[in-house]
Amino acid sequence: MEKELWKGNEAIAEAAIRAGCDCFFGYPITPQSEVPEYMSAHLPKAGGVFVQSESEVAAINMVYGAAGSGKRAMTSSSSPGVSLKQEGITYLAGAEVPAVIINCMRGGPGLGTIQPSQGDYFQATRGGGNGDYRTLVLAPSNVQETVDFVQEAFDIADQYRNPVMVVCDGLIGQMMEPIEWHPVPKRKLPPKDWATSGKYGRDHTNVINSLYMAPEDCDQHNVHLDEKYAEIAKNETRWEEVDCDGAEIIITAYGTPARIALTALETLRSAGLKVGLFRPITLWPFPEKALHDLAGNPHVKAFLDVEMSSSGQMLDDVRLSVEGQKPISYLGHAGGVMPTVEEMVQSAKKALKEVK
Amino acid sequence: MNAASICSHRISIITGHYGTGKTEFAVNLALALARECDHVMLADLDIVNPYFRSRERKTLLEDAGVHLISSSQACTDADVPSLPAELFTIFENREIKGVLDIGGDPVGARVLARFQPKIQAEDYQLIYVLNANRPEVRTVDDAVRYLRDIETITGLTCSGLVNNTHLCQETTEAEIRKGAALSSAVSQETGIPILCHVAQERFVPCLSDLPETVFPITIRMKKPWE
Asked: Which site among A105, A175, A317, B197 is 20 to 30 Å from A122 CA-CA?
């Protein structure tokens, strides 16, 4: 298949259109503005609806309404804008409405910078909204994966009636890479018989709601959600291991730092170090069992977690998974500064030296 | 090959569709020009891209004798589409050889409109950069449409095409030739000559049969893992 050169953000938009996205609601913010820009030009031509909303809050609530009627809906933003969407996301999760949300992360907190960052890990995996809910979070580390994951995200959302987030950092959104539009596996999806798309002779009225008047009912609803999340964790957890067999030091990283780590791996290998990369692809569900088992291997001496975050966020999940079996050190920068290959090489050498 | 033959006018304005590689070309062109003549200035006038801008290579450029004109960091990182006042140096000092790196599409080229009378009074060329792997400009019709839209919004006339067809690290000779064919068709359609084909050094020997100049480049706008 012939490759084409795409910018990450444009590719996200095109991937959504190809996945049958019916509606896009969004508001511009750097570094993801090419998503709504591309959508505004191309989604209407594909028969879909593009609305530039008056705010991020409006956009996510438009998603709630459109997706509630059974349409495939998406919104995208960058960190401060995704913060504004949190209320809408917990409503989507509570009412079990499928939707796709893109976060092209930039430096924080607050307005931060417009440069790439991964400071929204906690927000994405713990939920920035209220209540006991989970969103499945896919974290691509190149433009090809981004394109594939965005298309798959719509199916995953529909399968579980749950919001799915695709989080990439600003670099992935802004960079150009060759990609191919290969077929993405399509899932067998249940009918949307819950959608508020008109009664049409049905004996009951469908209602999209996250409010329960009786505490017992709300408790029961939470039990149901919990079972669903367990099912998602069982079926959808994804990660990648590079050269972990026999490795003494394992770098844990996702997104752009994982990409930088691949180059660091080459340098470390040529220096004679046994080094591997463990890359979570779903941030929630986190691949905790795989990482736990890897840590249990006698050849593994230490971990180095690398993130574009000041003192580490995924680091918490790495610690929870490793469960103290091996020491974990951390390398990270926030605010739009990216860890360099050289820093990774030095940190990995230091971490290994400390245990030897 | 010399850069001065590509920059036969005092001011070269680099435009094109998003992501065709304008900045990579502009940075390499300014560096090559500085090896051949004095008083070379590169103006980063990209107000549509937040990353991968020529000002990120300020040290490299300044060390090579290229004076870089760009908005203050405060303005660019705050997303303010401001233009540096120093730009007027290029228009008003005729000792200077200027390369203007413009943001993509008619949207990015819009910055030129306010300078149109000044630019027209000078010896300039508007260059249109083509990359046949960019899906929105891969056909002759689409490529010409973007070119005409850029001319309309800037009020300037394009006088040179540059084939910058690549696939990042996956570029092959065949890719460059694909772009040469597209550029040739656009040239025939518009009557605008091809100024050069852009190629990383390693491809230059095998492209000697192309009728136009091959401009050798070294990748400067690297990704953090490259």
From this structure: A175
